[in-house]
Write a structure and sequence with these properties.
Distance between the termini: 53 Å
Order of helices and strands: EHEHEHEHEHEHEHEHHHEEEHHHHH
Largest sheet: 7 strands, parallel
CATH architecture of the largest domain: Orthogonal Bundle
Number of strands: 11
Bound molecules: nicotinamide-adenine-dinucleotide, magnesium ion
CATH superfamily of the largest domain: RNA polymerase sigma factor, region 2, helix turn helix motif
Helix content: 40-55%
Number of domains: 2
Number of helices: 15
CATH topology of the largest domain: Rna Polymerase Sigma Factor, Chain: A
Shape: globular
């Protein structure tokens, strides 16, 4: 029996993780769950999975959650201390890090320090603090399993091979909803258009990141840390069918790829049960139903966020954390209708232009850089006329 804690159980990844847990009651037991705002769904999860600890992000929601859970045998906590308590609960073997954004940093770091294995969906932790996290993973001897589908694909394509034999990593990208939208009309697209992803059903923030292609930029940085590969050896291919989830090319010219129906339950199941493979509920792949699988290079002029991410990781130090913070603010402002779609990249670029990268040694220093990035980006958004 593997004991699991899910940080962010009410989100898209959290819900898919719980579906797999529910399908394998003989393998997995839930120890702690945490949620943000969706208390109604959270209470249903608490009733179904009977965690020992349930945590809401805001202290203000604790009394209401206690009321809704009266009669249930569960400890209700709130705030960052609550998230840390969930992440470090004694019985937990593995923590699924599925909070969105830099908010995942502190509880994920606490889980590693408590010796928990990590199934990592929250790519922002590696983007903002990759060097610190990879050092923590080594220091505390825990295992870090990627949940992001591309990184799971790479992880699976590396199994049985030597990292030093890798020539390059090819990250595939669907291209998002605006793949065929002319660059000249991108400034006019609506929030609804941007949320309409062709292949994947995900939380709002990552769906907008996919539309700007910042998601792929974040994933390049994530891959750089997970597989300690130089950024120049990580290439992005647009693959609109999202069937090949990523590839690894070796020095002998052989390429290993992982294929499957686009459904996050596959990489989640692999991370949860590794090294075993378990039934995930993912629809089997029938390649005969596709008229072709296509690949081409991304349009860097149209999707400017991709180059901003390369610029951030090449600058290193605090720049990726600032870029990530600016992106989180710009995406939130876009979702609120306060800035236009192309102003997301503009906000990030202007925030990065205003930042002098400096060394980050601790999570606290990362959080300071993150705060600086957020405040600067907010200010830039306020000045913009939509
Ligand atoms: P989501 O918005 O659907 O869910 C996020 C979860 O985190 C929710 O439970 C929410 O309540 C909680 N949360 C949000 N803000 C919080 C805060 N400040 N403090 C505590 N909890 C908070 O997001 P998602 O799509 O499930 O994505 C989660 C993470 O996984 C992201 O980092 C995303 O990039 C990554 N990811 C998601 C997918 C996907 O298919 N959804 C794929 C790959 C990677
Ligand atoms: Mg991905």
């Amino acid at each position: 029996m593997k004991n699991i804690t899910i940080l962010g159980s009410t989100g898209s990844i959290g819900v898919s993780t719980l579906e797999i847990v529910a399908a394998h009651p003989d393998r997995f037991r839930i120890i702690a769950l945490t949620a943000g705002k969706n208390l109604e769904l959270f209470v249903r999860q608490i009733v179904q999975f009977a965690p020992r600890i349930a945590v809401v992000a805001s202290h203000d929601d604790v009394p209401r959650l206690k009321e809704l859970c009266s009669g249930l045998d569960v400890t209700i906590l709130g705030g960052v201390e609550g998230l840390i308590a969930a992440a470090t609960a004694n019985e937990t073997d593995m923590v699924v890090a599925a909070i969105v954004g830099a908010a995942g940093l502190v509880p994920t770091a606490a889980a590693i320090r408590a010796g928990k294995d990590i199934a990592l969906a929250n790519k922002e932790t590696l983007v903002t603090a990759g060097h610190i996290f990879m050092d923590l993973v080594a220091e505390f001897g825990v295992r870090l399993f990627p949940v992001d589908s591309e990184h799971s694909a790479i992880f699976q394509s590396i199994e049985g091979h030597r990292c030093e034999d890798i020539h390059k990593i090819i990250l595939t990208a669907s291209g998002g909803p605006f793949l065929n939208t002319p660059a000249s009309t991108l400034s006019q697209v609506t929030v609804r258009d941007a949320l309409n992803h062709p292949n994947w059903s995900m939380g709002k923030k990552i769906t907008i990141d996919s539309a700007t292609m910042m998601n792929k930029g974040l994933e390049v940085i994530e891959a750089r840390w997970l597989f300690s590969t130089p950024v120049e050896n990580i290439q992005v291919n647009i693959h609109p069918q999202s069937i090949i989830h990523s590839m690894v090319e070796y020095v002998d010219g052989c390429v290993m790829a992982q294929l499957g129906t686009p459904d996050m339950k596959a990489p989640i199941a692999y991370a949860l049960a590794y090294p075993e493979r378990i039934v995930s509920g993912v629809k089997p792949l029938d390649l005969t139903t596709f008229s072709g699988l296509t690949f081409f290079n991304p349009d860097h002029d149209k999707f400017r966020c991709l180059d901003l991410a390369y610029r951030a990781i090449n600058a290193g130090e605090s720049m990726p954390a600032v870029m990530n913070a600016a992106n989180e603010i710009a995406v939130a402002e876009f979702l609120e209708g306060r800035i236009g779609f192309t102003q997301i990249a503009e906000t990030i670029e202007r925030t990065m232009d205003a930042h002098s990268a400096h060394n980050l040694r601790t999570i606290d220093e990362v959080l300071k850089a993150d705060l600086w990035g957020r405040e600067s980006a907010r200010e830039i958004c306020r000045e913009m006329v939509h």
